[in-house]
Amino acid sequence: MIHPFRMRLLPAFLLLGLGVTATAAELPAGDADRGRTKAYTCRGCHGIPGYRNVYPHYHVPLIAGQNEAYLAQALLSYREGRRRHPTMRAQGLTLSDQDIADIAAFLARAGERP
Ligand code: HEC
Predict the structure, then answer these.
(1) Is the overall model pTM greater than 0.85, yes or no?
(2) Is the CB of 87 under 6 A from ligand 1?
């Protein structure tokens, strides 16, 4: 028989699990065309090929052409504070699950463009 104390704790554990362990695999399907529009503000810093980087001497990681799940996981991590870089945390906090999925889908394909 399950002790009543454990039964009361169970929903709390389930909620905690949902909040803390969000992974790229749980995101909705991404749409690269929507992602192109949503990634507009990212270009200034990340210099996606074909776009001018407005900060030529500002070091940022290359994100165009990266693995889609990796990109989505990175953005989730910034949003949830598991990655602490302040600039990217601020970016992540503006993004919904759907935004992250769309942007990751777009960026993963962006490296293939001429
Ligand atoms: C103001 C400049 C700036 C803007 C705007 C910006 N980023 Fe970043 N981004 C950075 C910097 C700096 C880092 C490195 C942060 C770190 O060391 O964790 C980074 C890191 C990342 C990473 C992690 C890359 C890796 O390989 O670990 C991803 C993914 C990313 N950005 C995506 C985006 C997306 C998507 C947007 C638009 C919604 C965006 N960034 C907008 C500056 C920016």
Answers:
(1) no
(2) yes
